[in-house]
Automatic annotation (TrEMBL):
<dbReference type="InterPro" id="IPR050172">
    <property type="entry name" value="SsuD_RutA_monooxygenase"/>
</dbReference>
<keyword id="KW-0503">Monooxygenase</keyword>
<dbReference type="InterPro" id="IPR011251">
    <property type="entry name" value="Luciferase-like_dom"/>
</dbReference>
<dbReference type="Pfam" id="PF00296">
    <property type="entry name" value="Bac_luciferase"/>
</dbReference>
<keyword id="KW-0560">Oxidoreductase</keyword>
<dbReference type="InterPro" id="IPR036661">
    <property type="entry name" value="Luciferase-like_sf"/>
</dbReference>
<keyword id="KW-0288">FMN</keyword>
<protein>
    <submittedName>
        <fullName>LLM class flavin-dependent oxidoreductase</fullName>
    </submittedName>
</protein>
<feature type="domain" description="Luciferase-like">
    <location>
        <begin position="33"/>
        <end position="110"/>
    </location>
</feature>
<keyword id="KW-0285">Flavoprotein</keyword>
Length: 213
């Protein structure tokens, strides 16, 4: 079965934050924050996950993922983890905490290179070691790991495309054997709602066999 994931856009092109009146002292992000709005749209639209890629011009993915997990109920949130951000053991502990408080909805989005794969392997080994994580943190499974460019995954930039064009692009790659689709979207949550309303039903339909006889 095909699954659709949303990749958040670059923060560099994000709309400027709203200017608040001086009398307001609550500086927490509002519900209109671009990333929060996109994640909530993906959650309501029934998509599989939201990916927070590493962006040199944007906020830290792990911190952003924590905020998005708090704002959603169903989607998995993948953070763009870089091997140099911390030791694998500390990354495992932070991730275990996110797994604990999100009900196991956290994942890692890594570059598809040997260094990233080794980082994830070391963190996973530490996670499962009896003398690794504290018991209170190790009760959840190690985060799901997606390697960019892995076999069976297709990455498509669909920002601004109409739903029929998105469905056609996905369908073409389904014919080539892809099953996981990571769609980079723009900053309009309406794009995500339209994917959920018009694209997902098409993908859920049973497909006729491609051979005769």
């Amino acid at each position: 079965m095909s699954r659709v994931h949303i990749v958040l856009p670059s923060a560099a092109a994000a709309p400027p934050p709203a200017v608040l009146p001086d009398r307001l002292t609550d500086l927490r992000p509002s519900a209109s924050d671009p990333f929060l709005a996109l994640a909530k749209a993906a959650d309501l639209a029934g998509l599989a996950s939201v990916v927070v890629p590493y962006d040199r011009q944007g906020p830290e993915p792990l911190v952003t993922a924590a905020a998005l997990l708090r704002a959603t109920r169903h989607v998995t949130v993948f953070a763009g983890v870089q091997p140099w951000i911390a030791t694998p053991q500390y990354a495992a502990k932070v991730s275990a905490s996110l797994q604990r408080f999100s009900g196991g909805r956290f994942g890692w989005y890594l570059d598809g290179d040997a260094e990233s794969a080794a980082f994830a392997q070391t963190a996973g080994d530490f996670w499962r070691r009896p003398d690794g994580l504290p018991e209170v943190l190790s009760e959840h499974a190690f985060p799901a790991v997606v390697l960019a460019g892995a076999s069976g995954t297709a990455h498509l930039d669909v920002a601004g495309l109409e739903p029929d064009a998105v469905a056609a692009a996905i369908d073409e790659r389904r014919d080539a054997g892809f099953a996981e689709f990571f769609l980079t979207v723009g900053h309009d949550p309406g794009e995500i709602y339209r994917i959920g309303e018009y694209v997902l039903p098409v993908l859920s339909q049973e497909r006729a066999p491609s051979h005769a006889g």
